[in-house]
TrEMBL record:
Official protein name in the record: SDR family oxidoreductase
Species for this entry: Stutzerimonas azotifigens
Family according to the record: Belongs to the short-chain dehydrogenases/reductases (SDR) family.
SUPFAM superfamilies per record: NAD(P)-binding Rossmann-fold domains (SSF51735)
Keywords in alphabetical order: NADP, Oxidoreductase
InterPro entries assigned: NAD(P)-bd_dom_sf, SDR_fam, Sec_Metab_Biosynth_SDR
Length: 256
């Protein structure tokens, strides 16, 4: 089995990699043999995560604010001084905003759309030259965008911009998959349901809310760290070399 799922010799970037789903994926990539560059806005948290994961393999921290075009360009420039090719890009950095419908602010909508859609597009734009250098017909470079079942279902929980932002990311990913396939760059989406993260901590820390939330999931539980890592490794390895343009829910059946 190892040759099918090995990431030995490959370099990966994971945005929002200091915690939550990004941290799960970064850990899995390291265990599979990849060199990983973590990107997060909080430099201290980014360094701490890289230090924590360093015993698993070569893990580097690159603090950057991806919420602006200048921040993305600065990140790409810095990364370009460290590596000459990029095998795997995981666009995980994202945000949400919740408020009642009639009170939902424009600034909340704009913040969510900026980080969840526009910034992902910018990261792909800026890092595409490095991805092209790693790409080949037998071993395509990989872009893995982290979407959400909120972009598939109508359950919004008063986070009115979040679901539409993820639906937009799903469609952007399909468009890029079609365009980049001839350049040997695969683009796929992982659409998580409930996993432990800062975004879902308000539920995880409330036993009653947690029980009520799990009642709506056919498998009656949240996803586990190793399940997220395994799916990301699949898409990044030989196992996923013939996959592009896919939106993969990992949600215990919630999207059904």
């Amino acid at each position: 089995m190892p040759p099918y799922f090995s990431l030995a010799g490959r370099t990966a970037v994971v945005t929002g990699g200091s915690r939550g789903i990004g941290h799960m994926i970064a850990k899995g990539f390291l265990e599979a043999g990849a060199t990983v560059y973590l990107c997060a806005r909080d430099a201290q948290a980014c360094e701490a995560a890289a230090s924590e994961l360093g015993h698993l393999g070569e893990c580097h921290a690159l603090a950057a604010n991806l919420a602006s075009e200048d921040g993305i360009k600065a990140f790409a420039d810095t990364l370009g001084t460290r590596i000459d090719r990029l095998d795997i890009l995981v666009n995980n950095a994202g945000t949400t905003w919740g408020a009642p419908l009639e009170e939902y602010p424009a600034k909340g909508w704009e913040k969510v759309m900026q980080l969840n859609v526009t910034s992902v597009f910018g990261c792909i734009q800026q890092l595409l030259p490095l991805l092209r250098k790693a790409a080949s017909p037998d071993d395509p470079a990989r872009i893995i965008n982290i979407g959400s079942v909120a972009g598939i279902t109508s359950h919004g929980e008063q986070a009115y911009a979040y679901g539409p932002s993820k639906a937009a990311l799903h469609q952007l990913s399909r468009m890029l998959a079609r365009e980049l396939v001839e350049q040997h760059v695969n683009v796929n989406v992982i659409a998580p349901g409930r996993f432990p993260s800062k975004m879902t901590s308000f539920i995880a820390n409330d036993a009653e809310a947690m029980a009520a939330d799990c009642a709506h999931i056919p498998m009656k539980r949240w996803g586990r760290e190793e399940e997220m890592a395994a799916l990301a490794i699949t898409l990044a390895s030989t196992a996923g070399a013939y996959m592009t343009g896919t939106i993969i829910p990992i949600d215990g059946g919630f999207h059904l």
